[in-house]
């Protein structure tokens, strides 16, 4: 008598992660992300604040990077909240 339980668990013939059963496509699928002004601004702000914090920490400052975190967090949260309301 065949064991159905073993057949359900033995799924080694399926595609691996990132592979597809579809043989009509020869190139792998790539998720395209739409680059918007908001995303560019977000990346620029994160990069800028990160660099400023890194430089201040390297120069031996301890309070300035934390203050930058708090002020930037409040200002950016208010700005984003305000921009979504209008």
TrEMBL record:
Biased composition (Polar residues): 20-29
UniProt keywords, alphabetically: Membrane, Transmembrane, Transmembrane helix
Sequence segments annotated as region (Disordered): 1-29
Keyword Membrane appears in the UniProt entry: yes
Comp. bias intervals (Acidic residues): 1-10
Keyword check for Membrane: yes
Record-annotated membrane-spanning stretches: 40-61
Protein name: Uncharacterized protein
Organism: Cerrena zonata
């Amino acid at each position: 008598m065949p064991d159905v339980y073993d057949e359900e668990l033995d799924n080694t013939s399926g595609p691996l992660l990132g592979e597809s059963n579809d043989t009509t496509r020869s190139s792998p699928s790539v998720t395209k992300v739409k680059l918007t002004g908001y995303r560019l601004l977000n990346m620029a702000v994160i990069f800028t604040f990160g660099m400023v914090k890194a430089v201040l920490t390297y120069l031996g400052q301890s309070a300035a990077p934390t203050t930058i975190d708090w002020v930037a967090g409040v200002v950016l949260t208010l700005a984003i909240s305000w921009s979504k309301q209008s």
